[in-house]
Amino acid sequence: MNNKIFSFQNTNTLAQALTNKIHELEYQSKKGTKYPFGNNEDFVGIGQMILEFFFSDYLIQRGYPNKDSQIKKSSDLVLLRQRLLSERNLADIAIMYKIDNIVQVGNQISLKKNPKILAETLKSIIAAQYYDSGFDLDHLREVVQPILKQVLDKGQGVPIIELKQNPKSAFLEFVNGCTNLKPKVSVEWKKDTTQNGNPINVYQVQLELNNILSITRMGINKRNTEQIVYREALQKLKQIQQKQLHSQEQQNQQTQPLKIKTQDKESIQEITILDELDTSVMEQSQFYSLSDLKDDDLNLLENQRTLGQKVESLLEQFAL
Fold first, then answer.
1. What residue ranges define each of the domains in the chain, with the CATH number in brackets?
2. Kindly report the CA angle at 150 between 147 and 154, in degrees rounded to 5?
3. Could you read off the pLDDT of 160-177 as tens digits, one per residue?
4. Mapping DSSP to helix (H, G, I), strand (E, B) and coil, where does residue 129 land?
5. What residues does the RNase III domain cover (predicted)?
6. Is the dihedral angle over the CA atoms 136, 142, 143, 148 positive or is it negative?
7. Tens of pLDDT along 108-146?
8. Chain-centroid distance, C-alpha 124
9. What's 41-104 look like in SS3?
10. What pTM value is reported for the model?
11. Residue 284 carries which DSSP code?
C-alpha cells in the first residue's frame, strides 16, 4: 500500500483538480491559447461519489443500518450522508487543508473563500487521486478517512434524530402540529455586491410566520440556503413552545401565540452520531496541508515542467 496520503505520479492531474473553469476561461482570454491543464468540472461529480461510497462503507462495516440503533434503515444512512457531507462541512475541511490558498479562480480572488468552490475543489482532489493512484481503493480509503473523521466530528453535537430530518418537512410537520398558521416563504435571486468589487449571484430566502418570526438568509446554493432557514425557524419555534409551556403569564393579545396541542411528553434520548459510531479507528488520522504550495506557483502558468517540479516538491512533504 502506498505510504503517502497524497502521491501523484502525474502532477498535472493535481493541477487540473485545483483549476476552476473560471481560471481556465480567463487564461484563454488573456493568452489566446488553450490552458494546458484543463478544469476540474469532471472531477467534482466523481469526487462526490467517492465520498458517498466511503461514508456508507464506513457505516456498513460497523453494522449499520441496524434495527437496534438509531440508524435503522438504509434510508437513515442516506439522510445522514446527505446532511454530513454538506457543502458547508466540506468547505470547512478544505480550509483546514489550506486549499483556499491554491485553488485557481483567475482574478476572482473573493471566490477563494466561496463554500461551493472550496467543496468542489476538495472533491476534485479526491477524484484526481483516484485516477492517479491507478484506482487504488485501499490508498484512497487512507485519503478519505481523515475527511470522514472531521465530518463525523461536526455531527457529534447533533442528535441523530435531528441529523436524519429533512429540515423543510420537519418544520412543516411541527407547524401543522401546534398552530393553525401558514408560513410564507419567498426566494429571490440577486447579486451580492459586497464581495470586494466582484459581485456574485446569491439566493435570498425569507420565511415569515405572521408576527411570530421572520428569518432571512442568503447563499449561493438555493437548496442549502432554504434548509438553513427551515432549520433555524424550527429551532426558534421550539424555543417559543418551551417558553409557553413553562410560562404562567397571559400572552399579549396583539401577538399570535402558538396554539399548543396536547403532546406526548415521553422523553426522547438524544443520541448523537459519536454515541452510535466508534471513531477510534480514525483517531490517529492526520491532516496534510497544501499551504506550502503558493498561489503564484499555479497562477496562469505556461510551463508544465515548472508546475510539476513545484507540486512534486510539495508532495514529498506529505510522506508519513
1. 11-159+275-316 (1.10.1520.10), 167-269 (3.30.160)
2. 140
3. 665 556 788 888 888 888
4. helix
5. 74-134
6. positive
7. 888 999 999 999 999 999 999 999 999 999 999 988 988
8. 14
9. HHHHHHHHHHHHHHHHHHHHHCCCCCCCCCCCCHHHHHHHHHHHCCHHHHHHHHHHCCHHHCCE
10. 0.61
11. T
